[in-house]
Design a protein that fits this description.
mainly alpha, 6 helices, globular
Amino acid sequence: MATASELLPTTDPATGPVHSAREVVPAELWDKQVGLLMRDYPYDSIMAARVLGQGYAYLLTAMQHRGEALGLAPSKLVDIGVHTIILDTVAYAELCDRFNGGHFLHHVPKVAMKSDGSVMKTAHRIAADGWEVDLSLWADAAECGPCHPGNDSH
């Protein structure tokens, strides 16, 4: 079985193309999960797709770096997308088989509440791995002093 690093895009965002989660999620599954977000949250299709895309980018990055103890953490909004993906259990098991060597990636929700800079560090890691990052969806992490937009300390 291929490893996540063989299946996922690895590129330097400064020199290579940025990848979208839509490239690895089948269209039928994408549409289904966008619909679930629209059903469960006050999102239109555009917002639902943004949240879902960042949820996939987070999970796929976490899978690629499994075992590296990077302390990755989603923002509150991205965590909504993560939970939508995980709760679609058959599709999530298939995602883990495809991108995580068959290992189920466990998600600990309490990390979404961290204010130690780990959320913005995660957004930077996702970008460094070549995934699209919708910074406005990671903005709830800006409440933690050093992570305020415009502050270069992170």
